[in-house]
Amino acid sequence: MTSETTVTAAETPAANGHGEAHSTASFAGLLIGSIGVVYGDIGTSPLYALREAVVAATGSSGAADPQAVLGVLSLILWALIVVVTLKYVLILLRADNNGEGGTLALMALAQRAVGGNAAVIVLLGIISGALFYGDAVITPALSVLSAIEGIKLVTEAFEHYVVPLTLIILMALFAVQSHGTARVASMFGPIMCLWFAVLAIAAVPQIVQHPEVLGALNPFHAVSFMLHHGMIGFITLGAVFLAVTGAEALYADLGHFGKKPIQTAWLFIVLPSLALNYFGQGALLIANPKAIENPFFLMFPEWALIPMVALATIATVIASQAVITGAYSLTRQAIQLGLLPRFEIRHTSEAHSGQIYIPKVNLMLFLAVMLLVVLFRSSSALASAYGISVTGTMVVTAMMGFVVIWKVWKWSPLAAGALIAPFLFLDITFLAANLLKVFEGGWVPLLLGGVVMLLMYTWRRGSRLLFEKSRKLEFPLADLVAMLEKRPPQRVAGTAVFLTSDPQSAPTALMHSLKHYKVLHEKNVILTIETAPAPRIDDSERVRLEEISATFSKVTLRFGFMESPNVPKALAIARKLGWQFDIMSTSFFLSRRALKPAAHSGMPRWQDHLFIALSRSSNDATDYFQIPTGRVVEVGTQVTI
């Protein structure tokens, strides 16, 4: 007869999750922190967004048309109000997964709500996750380039130094990632607060001189521009969208700062500062149409140009840092959700579990970013590549948001559709406008996203096929235990822990151990590690024990998809249940599989080879699960797939 025990909340201290952090950290601290991390990307959009949109609207004549300026400015302001304020700040921030946000957190929430028919949800999650990597590559290249380009206004002699300086700054940014960003991050908030203050203050003199620019608040100018400009208006929409890139960060960083600080920062600091700056640039262009060369920096007097280039460079580095950190977090979630192989994850802070560094991801991002800078060489050329990945992610987010509002919030399908449909229509319109720029550079995020999607799909499909094939060859655990209890082999002192993904079948390592060593430990534990569809698991739900026989038991450890699994720490919780666990008298048995392509498999031959290559790049399970290397015995097996 089996007996099952679950740790109760009274027996173990509560997990120190983000919810606790939100209650103990000061609201002002979270507010300033969110300005530094969440709003870096969208906060640096004024460097290039209005310029690119007006150029798209008026052509390359070298002068801006005042009426077109008002129309473009109106489109940008209303995009900020509708897409960012209404969709993200007021609606999607409420669709959290136990306090966490982001596309994969939304995917897990929707997947849990739908239940068995979740294949489409997983596909949407893979698409949005893949497109985010495109954003993570383009943001550092575009934002730092646009900041450094300001030095050309000081003297044209500096023009040849723009690309080399950009490469040096980006090289330094990626080089410091392995040291952690805790100390630097503490400065992000104050610096970005200064940045938004400067954005607003610099615009006021221009607006005072040409108050007619405030007429752009009337949406009639946006509608009139679209009606009278036809295809050019539609093309301009793709550039207008540059003003709202970074909106996904509002949602992705929900778990770090909480809903209220993010909403307050946007409504009272970020949105007013961005709106004022766009008004200021618009007023300058009405007064001096030839300022289209760089309306952002030309708002400042000559003596302020060098300090502003320096401040803009720091702000764009902060924006880049936030996206790089987001790529690390997304990768960890993807690994836990079974979409990517186990990569080495290093923790750069003892106090904050979210501060991590993934060497392979850092290297791939670095190489891709440097290549983009060298290929495109200017922010205007790179701007064409920017919108597709973000608009694609927004379309997917809206679709999954509909599922959550319908299934989780329990709205009727009609009501959920009525709420999301206008935003989905806008997102699809922006996506269509950006797709027109595929041959100008839009192919970059599509190529990057396609590669990541292929890797995620291959890993998920290959893992499932491997699991199904292994299961057919394995022996039922219950039958094996019954046989061993009747005819026990030679016993040795200590505890053996056998890791397996299928607790119903005898682990390969156990079968090989019996076959070759012909001995059994006094205590044997079949250990399964599960990833829950929640971001974090409380310690009270971390461990589940089940006794199979006098010498065999099952242990299931549950981790959230945003947690890094720590097996010894989790097993220490089981000791409070009375399980005699001593790490120094315990051996962990892991099976290391060498994969070979089979003559017939469920995937094409090239995909078999890709899956095998991904498997070989996977980080060692000992390191990933943080098991002491001196306590591990690995048993090698060959498996065909």
What secondary-structure arrangement, pairings included, does this model have?
Blueprint: E1 3-6, H1 18-24, H2 27-37, H3 40-43, H4 49-58, H5 66-91, H6 103-114, H7 119-148, H8 162-175, H9 182-209, H10 219-240, H11 247-252, H12 254-257, H13 259-287, H14 295-298, H15 305-336, E2 346-347, E3 356-357, H16 359-376, H17 379-408, H18 413-435, H19 443-473, H20 477-486, E4 490-499, H21 508-517, E5 519-532, E6 543-547, E7 552-560, H22 567-575, E8 586-596, H23 605-617, H24 621-624, E9 632-640
Parallel strand pairs: 4-5, 4-8, 5-7, 8-9
Antiparallel strand pairs: 1-6, 2-3, 6-7
Helix pairs in contact: 2-9, 2-13, 4-5, 4-10, 5-10, 5-13, 6-7, 6-17, 7-8, 7-15, 7-16, 7-17, 7-19, 8-16, 9-13, 9-15, 10-18, 17-18, 17-19, 19-23
Brief descriptors of the model:
single chain; 641 residues; alpha/beta; Amino acid/polyamine transporter I; 2 domains; seven-stranded mixed sheet; 9 strands; elongated
Give a brief description.
This protein is an alpha/beta fold and 641 residues long.
The percent range for strand residues is: 5-15%
Uncertain segments: 1-24
Write the CATH fold name of the largest domain. Amino acid/polyamine transporter I
Integer tally of domains: 2
- The percent range for helix content is 55-70%
CATH superfamily of the largest domain: Amino acid/polyamine transporter I
Classified by CATH, the class of the largest domain is Mainly Alpha
With strands numbered from the N-terminus, the spatial order across the biggest sheet is 1-6-7-5-4-8-9
Shape: elongated
The total count of helices amounts to 24
Per CATH, which architecture of the largest domain? Answer: Up-down Bundle
Taking all Cα atoms into account, the compactness measure Rg is 27 Å
Multimer state: single chain
Number of strands: 9
How can the largest sheet be summarized? 7 strands, mixed
